[in-house]
Specification:
This protein has a four-stranded antiparallel sheet with strand order 5-6-7-8, with no helix packed on it. Strands 1-10-9 form a three-stranded antiparallel sheet. A three-stranded antiparallel sheet has the order 2-3-4. A hairpin with a 6-residue loop joins strand 6 and strand 7 (204-205). The chain has helices at 2-31, 38-58, 71-74, 78-106, 123-132, 154-157, 163-170; strands at residues 117-122, 137-139, 144-148, 173-177, 189-190, 195-197, 204-205, 211-213, 222-228, 231-240. The protein is an alpha+beta fold and 264 residues long. The protein is 40% helix and 17% strand. The protein folds into two domains: 2-106, no CATH class; 117-240, Rieske [2Fe-2S] iron-sulphur domain (Rieske Iron-sulfur Protein), CATH 2.102.10.10.
């Protein structure tokens, strides 16, 4: 779908350039007023002299009247060429920049960062980072949070979550997209309640990303995950919709005062 959008945008840009170029050409043809060059006038004078000499030697044969050369004979006038070139450059600059920006925005990242597979680190290092973040580990490259997931909750999790989500959970972690599923704000953790609490409209989620309060229509979205050689990886190009309202696999309640009002 993304490739189709890029192709359509590119075709529209090229079509616009072509239309503007030919429109400029028509304006030049219908409105431009110019003069014959010095070289052309010189050739005309030489031709008239030659004709006069020929008349003197042939006894006064009648000379055909001169007709100006056609556009096909003289080619594109210099003024017309310059006008078309200036118009073309003026259009290519901004439109080319716009097309490049659109392609960069729409095309998925293949070399790292959000939209690609992000290495979160070795399992022991992730656990240490969660401790350092007071229960939450934020990975800006992937726009995601990593929290601990209790092994005792796995039986319930297996009835709710997809295998690619369970991979991280079985390793002891939950990988969550930072975006609130209500209206897309970034959801920060509340260190006192140990929940995620959205400052925009009050949606609240436990550490597993399961909805606890507010207007959110579901839990936080997850990413597909993989574990190899004790290294956890998140595929940020594969977003998995969060669990439905009412899901509570861990039973985690607020562990202190809320940062945002509205919690259940």
């Amino acid at each position: 779908m993304t490739a189709l959008i890029v192709i359509v945008v590119t075709v529209l840009v090229v079509a616009g350039l072509a239309a503007s170029f030919f429109a400029a050409g028509r304006r030049d043809t219908t409105k431009a007023v110019g003069k014959l060059s010095g070289e052309t006038r010189s050739r005309d004078r030489n031709a008239r002299k030659a004709a006069s000499q020929e008349l003197a030697t042939t006894g006064g044969a009648e000379v055909e009247p001169w007709t100006p050369p056609t556009a096909m004979e003289t080619g594109m006038a210099r003024r017309q060429f310059l006008n078309r070139g200036i118009v073309g450059l003026l259009l290519i600059g901004p439109l080319g920049g716009l097309a490049t920006g659109l392609i960069a925005f729409l095309w998925p990242s293949l070399s790292g960062g959000f939209g690609s597979k992000v290495t979160l680190g070795k399992l022991a290092d992730i656990d240490a980072n969660i401790t350092k973040g007071n229960g939450f580990y934020y990975v800006p490259e992937g726009k995601l949070y990593v929290t601990r997931y209790p092994s005792s909750a796995l039986p319930k999790a297996k009835t709710v979550y997809a295998p690619s989500e369970l991979t991280a959970m079985e390793a002891g972690f939950t990988v969550l997209y930072q975006k609130c599923v209500h209206l897309g704000c970034r959801v920060p953790p509340c260190l006192t309640s140990q929940w995620f609490e959205c400052p925009c409209h009050g949606s609240q989620y436990n550490q597993a990303g399961e909805k606890k309060g507010g207007p959110a229509p579901r839990g936080l979205d997850h990413f597909a995950t993989a574990v190899a050689n004790n290294v956890l990886t998140a595929d940020t190009g594969t977003i998995i919709l969060g669990p439905p309202i009412g899901t509570d696999t861990t039973g985690q309640e607020a562990e202190g005062p809320h940062c945002i009002s509205g919690g259940e």
